[in-house]
């Protein structure tokens, strides 16, 4: 489902002509099968977020290829990449990324509006997504009227409404207390087991890391195995 082949990524800092090259990822390769939960761990600065942004198509690798659903996304134009991302990937963020002035319903509906779907189709899919996360009775609530766990469930509903089989999650429990974290992790595992959804999750939290079928540990931009880079 996802194949990352020998990718490296370098940022260039400073003024043009006097840039300093900063190597963030070095020759990374791994694959993700359909229905797997993959967790990516490592200290701050290890390259976790950069790797997720590369797989999500928000950055292009300096070297290497990324294949998703048998398509090499590193060769796509910006427009085609945006269309591919809208059709095939969904995202869950640490800070929920809900728009405060929109209701729960409107926040979940937004990506479908951007996709240009008919209103009746949007309504059916939004209410189904809200029901799947147990918040169909909170459709008219604003983010400020919801708990942290409820806000994260709304952000999960926004991911589910796209009907993508791949969900990329950036520290999905980082803003939650331990009890709510366990609730959200249980829900992610339930979605994985019952609906065969594929998750790629970056985290620094051992509790989150443990739910993965496979763990990728990064250290200074390289994949580590038992303390040794591979």
TrEMBL record:
Keywords: ATP-binding, Nucleotide-binding, Transport. InterPro entries: AAA+_ATPase, ABC_transporter-like_ATP-bd, ABC_transporter-like_CS, ABC_transpr_LolD-like, MacB-like_ATP-bd, P-loop_NTPase. One of its GO terms (molecular function) is ATP binding. SMART domains: AAA. The keyword Nucleotide-binding applies. The keyword Hydrolase does not apply. Pfam families: ABC_tran. One of its GO terms (cellular component) is plasma membrane. Residues 2-230 form the ABC transporter domain. Belongs to the ABC transporter superfamily. This is Acetoin utilization transport system ATP-binding protein. It comes from Gracilibacillus halotolerans.
